[in-house]
Amino acid sequence: MVLxxxxxxxxxxxxxxxxxxxxxxxxDVNYPKRGGWTAxxxxxxxxxxxxxxxxxxxxxxxxxxxxDGHTPVHLASEHHHTAVVIQLVSAxxxxxxxxxxxxxxxxxxxxxxxxxxxxxxxxxxxxxxxxHGFGEPGNQPNDATIALSTLAKPATWSVAELxxxxxxxGTDVLKDGIVSGSLSLLQYLVGTTAKRSTLSAQLHRxxxxxxxxxxxxxxxxxxxxxxxxxxxxxxxxxxxxxAKDTWDEWTPLCYAxxxxxxxxxxxxxxxxHADKHIADRHQRTPCDIAKLWRQPDDIVHALAP
Length: 305
What we know:
It comes from Dimargaris verticillata. Pfam families: Ank, Ank_2. This protein has helices spanning 2-5, 10-17, 19-23, 39-46, 49-57, 72-78, 82-91, 106-112, 116-124, 159-163, 173-180, 183-190, 193-203, 214-221, 224-232, 252-258, 262-271, 286-292, 297-303. By secondary structure, it is an all-alpha fold. The protein has a domain at 204-305: Serine Threonine Protein Phosphatase 5, Tetratricopeptide repeat (Alpha Horseshoe), CATH 1.25.40.20. Helix 2 (10-17) packs parallel to helix 5.
């Protein structure tokens, strides 16, 4: 436990991991605290590359998992620590494809956080990045302690393995990017012909657990800029405005009604030709759903038959 606390102080940590060499007292750098967190997990969540380097040199395991299956790379991805992601994946390249218990890869977590730098790095380091349109130069963290442009060991993953990977709910990087609300990330993922071809299988794929299309995901977040981008770039087609999911047969308008997104409601009705009369599995219209979740009068009025 002391080792975990020492991740805030590189000098203290260096002293602790050096005890065995100096006086024969062994400190287990992989000893987990509650939840399975090792000191490397703690350091990864804080983003200190100096501490990460000390722990790795002392034998810390980059592939160690918490009780939920999170590696230090997952935690660094969650907290926008791109330099630490690079450092850890360089030490153990297979962590790029190591899933959590619910099937989430580090790139999924970075995309959900809208972390363009980390998502871009994973895709650019893929063995076939250039041929899929992800090989262009991009801004990377400036950290003199680690090599940022390439892996210390060769990348062991392809673009397809990252882009097509789904978690246990059927969510992929594209849908995570939509949820994040980051237009710049979405533009990066689908912004060129080559990328569009790579993502073609995902653009209209439904989530396996609930059957949501990208338009459903965008509607529930209420981000009109994302809806516009998906619509204008053909990711939302004419039939999607009234597409039903496979859970409660909700249309995109039902999701926008549930979460009270007036601007999204208006966009769906006027631009995507969403029909506010279509009922779900329980015979509830979007207006009924808005009333059920006690949305303001202006939302109920916009959805009124």
